[in-house]
Amino acid sequence: MSKNLGITLGLIMVAVIGLGLLLVLDDRGGAPTARGVPAGPEGTPTAPAGLLVREDSRYLDRVEDSPVTVVEFLDFECEACRAQFPVMERIREDYDGRINTVIRYFPMPGHTNSEPAAAAVEAAAQQGALEEMYVRMYETQAEWGESRESQAGVFAGFAEDLGLDTDEFTGTVEDPATLERVRSDFEDGVALGVRGTPTIFVNGRPTPSMPGYEALSAMIDAELEG
């Protein structure tokens, strides 16, 4: 093989590997590079409302006639989501009564318990304990996250601690309709071009990857003032 041919083949391999990396789902705070919805706070095309929020989407905060809706695609086993959690809680506190906040399940492939965790949160939501289970998942993630074994028993214990009907909770978690509900959120995220978690939209506009409080509040303020 000639030296020039070797160099050419090497460059081709680098390009192929780079393309492959761009296509891999990344749960370390992947920026939302949705199809036709590039990242950027102002002047960016907004994501289709019908994909962002469904009739059955879960609201942590719902304010009638609010002009702003913040949507987060998240994975309860994702460490980056856990790191983003305090920012989202501060946003919820500071904008209480002024904005809607919606969570969408986006369990990442490779996380053994991310989908069961989402199902557990959905089951809790059906008993009126969405926020309580949402918070519990992040507060305890270090205890059960990254395990290769099922943590269903741990999640059932959370339900008991929260005073839920554990039989109903277990039945809901095991109901195929619940898994279908979780996966429908994931499919919407894929359709929007979500590649990693957390991915956050403010009125359909994607935020920078893992936005800090200042960046996120600036986008919200702009929408409230607009």
Segments where pLDDT lies below 50 for 5+ residues? 1-41
Q: Using the CA coordinates, give the radius of gyration.
A: 19 Å
Count up the helices: 10
Roughly how much helix do the residues carry, as a percent range? 40-55%
Give the ordered list of helices and strands: HHEEHEHHHHHHEEH
Q: Give the overall shape.
A: globular
> Strands across the major sheet, in which order?
1-3-2-4-5
Structural class, from secondary structure content? Answer: alpha+beta
Main beta sheet: strand number and arrangement? 5 strands, mixed
What is the percentage of strand-forming residues?
Answer: 5-15%
Mean pLDDT: 86
Q: Oligomeric state of the chains? A: single chain
State the end-to-end distance. Answer: 63 Å
Number of strands: 5
Give an overview in words.
The longest helix is centred in the first third of the chain and has 21 residues, at 3-23. It is globular, with a radius of gyration of 19 Å. The protein has helices at 3-23, 49-52, 79-94, 114-125, 130-139, 141-144, 152-161, 166-174, 176-192, 213-225; strands at 58-61, 69-74, 100-105, 199-202, 205-206. Mean pLDDT is 86; it is low at 1-41. It has 226 residues and is of the alpha+beta class. It contains 10 helices and 5 strands, in the order H-H-E-E-H-E-H-H-H-H-H-H-E-E-H. A 5-stranded mixed beta sheet has the order 1-3-2-4-5.
Notable traits:
226 residues, alpha+beta, five-stranded mixed β-sheet, 51% helix, globular
Quick summary:
The chain has 226 residues and is of the alpha+beta class. The protein is 51% helix and 10% strand. A five-stranded mixed beta sheet has the order 1-3-2-4-5.
